Amino acid sequence: MASTLNENNLEKKFQSVTNTQDGIQSLSLWILHHKVHHKKIVEMWMKVLKKAKPSHRLTLLYLANDVVQNSRKKAGSHFGESFAEVLKEACVLLRDEKIQTSVKRVFKIWEERSVYDPDFIKELYDVLESSKESPPVSSKIIADFKPQKVADQIHMVDKIAKETLTKLTMLTNSKVDAASSEALRKLK
């Protein structure tokens, strides 16, 4: 069992998984091998799902289906529980008409195989079939939000504001003729 998880590598794996039996099963086996990181894996799955196009979102759902069903046989219920925590939010992203029939087929399989409780599956159907409007805030914006980047930009703006104030104070105190371009050139 692997003790570390490279998040960038995992994100790339999710982004590049193909909608083929081999592609899904290969990544599913890799994920099951890293079951100790189930929470982080599901968190990264959701992050990639938010950024993906509808057709790739369906591939990611197929992957989740494979992981959840195989984890019940091989690795316990960790993945089933972790995915259950994000599936309602994921359903909002799976509402595209082009993939909805396939999404419902996955839910039907979960129902037939008792992968999840029937009441929970009904809640998933309800979310999937509720208002077809997109979420009020773009999920891509939320997924791409980097608080540190915002903080760095605020610091940069603050630094520029202080430098501007210092230069304005110097200009005011220097008694330079602001109308004279020659005098302003000398200040540089």
TrEMBL record:
Signal peptide: none
SUPFAM superfamilies: ENTH/VHS domain (SSF48464)
Domain CID: start-end pairs: 2-132
SMART domains: RPR
Any single Pfam family the record assigns to this protein: CID
Matching PANTHER family: CYCLIN-DEPENDENT KINASE INHIBITOR-RELATED PROTEIN, REGULATION OF NUCLEAR PRE-MRNA DOMAIN-CONTAINING PROTEIN 2
Record protein name field: Regulation of nuclear pre-mRNA domain-containing protein 1A-like
Organism field: Limulus polyphemus (Atlantic horseshoe crab)
Gene designation per UniProt: LOC106475820
